[in-house]
């Protein structure tokens, strides 16, 4: 779509306002709105100024002036506004140099796609995420000087079996039994494994940047549809103790000149190139999780049981492995790698870009993924299971891994050292808020590290939800 076509659509749909949207460093959509009369063709070239100092992880107050430049082919009419409104995703630029802003996550994703093409390996990376979420009837939480609590509710939840009153008819779903029951037990129909209203709506694969755009739109639609019906939706990985969590399995494949590159005669019908890509993602998985699983709550989901993909291995059918090769079809077009660790709190632009960069590293260095894990993980003896590498046990461990292993992200200037350092700094504060504030007054680094480690162990008891402090 061209700028003049966007303006024509505004006239056709009788649009009154234009919502300029961009994603902040952590992956949340931000916006401001202008009258439709201000949307002229020049805006798609010159941009519109805004204050970037209040955006998480962005500019300091002394460099706050920035530009939003609308991307015309992302425009759509927002179905949730009372006033007819056109929404359009924007690029972020420096108003003086007119360079794209290095901390704009969408710019990072664009650079990753460009870098892939420049390597000659492929010209397109297709991404297909499977983002799960919960729809609750109510959600309350607070943290004050004298108390802290959270409370959620769902008419479908097992804990409501004994509640009296109207509307309780005994159709509640038992924990971990919500994958396939039909209504009236499944009141939201698009259900997943957990109870209490867990859902999943899969999207057809798209190119990397476009899919990241669509993931932001997906979350926006889910939350607003839930709100329209007097409910609330959350993409939190582990909102319910003792039940399955919400993941975002990421399916990846590479194509060149319209032809799939992952189909072949190797294991599970994969090509050598696909196995090397798998080897790269597997090699860098601990570091990737700092971007694909970026909250403390993410690691309440990555615990033994609940089909949690905590084993850094691959398999053609084993869902306890971090990587699965779907076997529904032998058609080369369908061949892909499913990375099962990520969850929907991830910034999709950074997460998809990082996964692609790990795959490219594996291809360029012919990394061997090792032997597959096709056995039932729960029947393996402890001595054998001990040899299978596990995912990091906490956000802090994943951040440490990213700090050690991020050179592959810097190639082609896709991620910059500044972007990595800013992410690490921001996420360390999220993982261990108290010690970092105290650490400003502690002179000895070893004392600060010891304190952080002690508090971390207290905060990240596996299997317990931690909703209030890790929402994005």
Structure description:
Helix 4 (208-228) runs antiparallel to helix 8 and helix 12 (417-431) crosses helix 13 (433-439). Mean pLDDT is 86; it is low at 434-444 and 457-472. The two termini are 32 Å apart. The longest helix has 21 residues, at 208-228. The protein has 14 helices and 17 strands. The protein has helices at residues 3-12, 43-46, 105-119, 208-228, 272-283, 285-292, 298-301, 348-364, 382-385, 395-404, 407-410, 417-431, 433-439, 445-459, and strands spanning 17-23, 29-35, 48-51, 65-70, 76-77, 85-93, 124-136, 138-143, 148-153, 198-200, 206-207, 232-234, 248-256, 259-260, 311-315, 321-324, 337-339. By secondary structure, it is an alpha+beta fold. Strands 7, 10, 11, 12, 13, 14, 15, 16 and 17 form a nine-stranded mixed sheet that branches. It has two domains: 3-101, Roll (Ubiquitin-like (UB roll)), CATH 3.10.20.70; 113-470, Creatine Kinase, Chain A, domain 2, CATH 3.30.590.10.
Q: Looking at the structure, what is the overall shape?
A: globular
The residue ranges in which pLDDT falls below 50 over 5 or more consecutive positions are 434-444, 457-472
Question: How many helices does DSSP assign?
Answer: 14
Backbone CA Rg: 23 Å
Give the strand content: 15-25%
In CATH's first tier, which class of the largest domain applies?
Answer: Alpha Beta
Secondary-structure map:
Blueprint: H1 3-12, E1 17-23, E2 29-35, H2 43-46, E3 48-51, E4 65-70, E5 76-77, E6 85-93, H3 105-119, E7 124-136, E8 138-143, E9 148-153, E10 198-200, E11 206-207, H4 208-228, E12 232-234, E13 248-256, E14 259-260, H5 272-283, H6 285-292, H7 298-301, E15 311-315, E16 321-324, E17 337-339, H8 348-364, H9 382-385, H10 395-404, H11 407-410, H12 417-431, H13 433-439, H14 445-459
Parallel strand pairs: 1-6, 15-16
Antiparallel strand pairs: 1-2, 3-4, 4-6, 5-6, 7-10, 7-11, 7-12, 7-13, 8-9, 13-14, 13-17, 16-17
């Amino acid at each position: 779509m061209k700028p003049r076509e966007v303006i024509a659509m505004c006239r056709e749909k009788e649009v009154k306002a234009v919502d300029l949207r961009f994603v902040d460093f952590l992956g949340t959509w931000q916006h401001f709105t202008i009258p439709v009369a201000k949307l002229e063709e020049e805006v798609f070239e010159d941009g519109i100024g805004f204050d970037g100092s209040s955006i998480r992880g962005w500019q300091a107050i002394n460099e706050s002036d920035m530009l939003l430049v609308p991307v015309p082919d992302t425009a759509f009419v927002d179905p949730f506004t009372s006033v007819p409104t056109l929404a359009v995703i924007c690029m972020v630029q420096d108003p003086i140099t007119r360079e794209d802003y290095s901390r704009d996550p969408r710019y990072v994703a664009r650079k990753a796609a460009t870098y892939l093409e420049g390597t000659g390996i492929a010209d397109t990376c297709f991404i297909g995420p499977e983002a799960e979420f919960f729809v609750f009837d109510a959600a309350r939480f607070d943290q004050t000087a004298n108390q802290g609590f959270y409370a959620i509710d769902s008419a479908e939840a097992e804990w409501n079996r004994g509640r009296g009153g109207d509307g309780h008819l005994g159709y509640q779903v038992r924990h971990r039994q919500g994958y396939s029951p039909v209504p009236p037990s499944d009141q939201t129909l698009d259900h997943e494994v957990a109870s209490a209203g867990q859902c999943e709506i899969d999207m057809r694969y798209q190119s990397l940047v476009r899919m990241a755009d669509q993931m932001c739109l997906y979350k926006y639609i889910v939350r607003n549809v839930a709100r329209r019906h007097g409910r609330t939706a959350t993409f939190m990985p582990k909102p319910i103790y003792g039940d399955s969590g919400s993941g975002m399995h990421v399916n990846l494949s590479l194509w060149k000149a319209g032809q799939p590159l992952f189909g072949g005669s190797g294991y599970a019908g994969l090509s050598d190139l696909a196995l090397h890509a798998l080897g790269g993602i597997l090699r860098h998985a601990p570091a990737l999780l700092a971007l694909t699983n970026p909250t403390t709550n993410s690691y309440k989901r990555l615990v033994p049981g609940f089909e949690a993909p905590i084993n850094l291995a691959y398999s053609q059918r084993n869902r306890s492995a971090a990587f699965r090769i779907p076997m529904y079809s032998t058609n080369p077009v369908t061949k892909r790698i499913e990375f099962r660790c990520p969850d929907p709190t991830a910034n999709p632009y950074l997460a998809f870009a990082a996964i692609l960069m790990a795959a490219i590293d594996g291809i360029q260095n012919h990394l061997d993924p090792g032997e597959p894990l096709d056995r039932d993980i729960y029947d393996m003896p402890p001595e054998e299971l001990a040899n299978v590498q596990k995912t990091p046990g906490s956000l802090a461990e994943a951040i440490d891994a990213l700090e050690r292993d991020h050179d592959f992200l810097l190639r082609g200037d896709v991620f910059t050292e500044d972007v990595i350092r800013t992410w690490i700094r921001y996420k360390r504060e999220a993982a261990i808020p108290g010690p970092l504030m105290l650490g400003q007054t502690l002179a000895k680094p070893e004392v600060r590290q010891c304190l952080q480690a002690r508090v971390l162990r207290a905060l990240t008891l596996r299997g317990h939800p931690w909703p209030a402090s890790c929402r994005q």
